[in-house]
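Bench notes, afternoon.
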Amino acid sequence: MLEIEVVEIKGKCPVYKRGDKIVIDGPRIVLEKTDALCIHALSVILHYAVALDEGADPVKLGLTKKSDKENAYVQCVDPWKPYTEGGTVIFRIKNIK
């Protein structure tokens, strides 16, 4: 099971606030434990979700540092200023039991 948490927002995000969570259990997004969903964020999260859920090493995937190997970090595809008026969101992904 994966827990994805919003750890940083650069600019303005119309969907997420810091601390929001998404929970994924296998192929299912656990809606009862999920605060919000954005189609832009899902494109990045789902790219790594299966691999991380199956135990892939986030360090080898280039998603974290050796000193933080329990977590993976991905970023929303919105590039933010000067390209858009929105914002970009950084998510921490970790396996939970």
